[in-house]
Amino acid sequence: MASGTLTIDLDALVANWRALDAMTDCETAAVVKADAYGLGVGPVSRALAQAGVRTFFVALSEEGAALREALGPNAQIMVFSGHMRGDTDMIADLGLIPMLNSTAQLTRHLEALPGHPFGIQLDTGMNRLGMEPAEWEAVRDVVLPMNPVLIMSHLACADEPGHAMNAAQLALFRDMTDGISVPRSLAATGGILLGPEYHFDLTRPGIGLYGGAPFTDAGPTVTLSLPVVQTRPVAAGESVGYGNAWTADENREIATLSGGYADGLIRAMGAEAQVFDGETSCPVIGRVSMDLLTVDISHLQETPTALDILCPAQGVDDLARAAGTIGYEILTSLGGRYHRRYRGGNGT
Ligand SMILES: *Cc1c(COP(=O)(O)O)cnc(C)c1O
User: Fold this and answer.
1) Is residue 155 part of a domain?
2) So what's the pLDDT on residue 347?
3) Which of 79, 214, 230, 311 has the most CB atoms within 10 Å of its CB?
4) 4 within some domain
5) How many domains are there within the chain?
6) What spacing in Å lies between the alpha carbon of 292 and ligand 1's midpoint?
7) Is residue 314 part of a domain?
8) Which ligand 1 atom is the nearest neighbour of the CA of 129?
9) C-beta 83 within 6 A of ligand 1
10) What are the φ/ψ torsions at residue 344 (nearest 5 degrees)?
11) DSSP string of 279-340?
């Protein structure tokens, strides 16, 4: 079997949720969009539900449908993109709660599904999703008597605690919502770490659950092990891989691993990335191919059968740094060809 093995530790995931939950006095939801950041929405959401998570967020109604199938009727499922044209049947039949982002979505929702629960997303400066202050001012007296399930906004710079944007968005969110009795939510992972004034009634962590920055105390949730397909001696002066991008300075032993950019091991990680034989690192050499990468194992005593590219010694943020990206992108890029193993989570 040449496919790599992606092991997902559901106990670590649940421990991360508990740690984030313990930092606040309010409800802690879970964001499981993009197939739970690439880790598999079924096993991830079932483990979290079993640990006590009641509210889940997804980006699209289609993701909400998959989540409803995984969780059954009791979980509260909120959809960030709101009520899009074509979503009505899914929202109605599966009991999804759209976060309405504009007057147009509000009108669509009230016309198509009067009486069906909804939330409101407000824009407090990120200018991505949500009603603008003036738009909200114009509809709030109509909306509030209908008891929205939640009013939320999203922080643009929460991973930079000293950034002035955080306080500015907090002030505007308060300005737009103080005095109303609807539950409020402002914080994702970064916002939880900013402190209690950002917590309101519900937090919405995503990346922190999966072990990524800015929640640097998170436990790692993924291990990725790549089988060695072949090894060979490469003599001084010979080169390896596309473009002859790497040339041996002396005689070397090179291993070819199964896993490449089609599996989310992006080309940009190239020269900075390493793989591990336990604690011992081996540099990735040459270019990452679609299905393969090549590493220098000259210093290993024995030829390994597999080497780890995500492991305790190199987490998602380390690999992201090597590739000039963020842990979110490494996780959500993990491809469909890996053999996936789930550990823990009470056998879910
Ligand atoms: C993705 C997302 C989250 C989760 O953010 P993390 O940084 O992964 O914790 C929360 N809220 C909204 C609106 C999002 O788009």
Assistant:
1) yes
2) 53
3) 79
4) no
5) 2
6) 32
7) yes
8) 13
9) no
10) 80, -155
11) TEEEEEES---SSEEEEE-TT-SS--SEEEEEBTTB-HHHHHHHHTS-HHHHHHH--TTSEE
Is residue 33 annotated as a catalytic residue, yes or no?
yes
Q: In terms of domains, do 27 and 132 share one? A: yes
126: exposed, middle or buried (C-beta count within 10 Å: 0-12, 13-18, 19+)? middle
DSSP, residue by residue, 240-255: ESGGG-EE-SS-EEEE
- Residue 198 among the catalytic residues: no
User: Do residues 235 and 184 share a domain?
Assistant: no
pLDDT under 70: residue ranges of the chain: 346-348
Spot the catalytic one: 210, 242, 261, 328.
Answer: 242
Q: Is the CB of 79 under 6 A from ligand 1?
A: no
Residue 214: asked if its preceding bond is cis (omega within 30°), the reply is yes
- The pTM (predicted TM-score) of the whole model is 0.97
Is the Cβ atom of 154 under 6 angstroms away from ligand 1? yes
What are the beta bridge partners of residue 120? 100, 151
Domain range for 104 is 10-210
Q: Which of 210, 238, 256 is the last residue of a domain?
A: 210
pLDDT of residue 348: 46
Between the CA of 109 and the centroid of ligand 1 the distance, in Å, is 23
| Residue 345 CB–ligand 1 contact under 6 Å | no
Q: Is 206 in the pocket of ligand 1 (CB under 6 A)?
A: yes
152/90 same-domain check = yes
Compute the distance from residue 201 Cα to the ligand 1 centre, in Å: 16
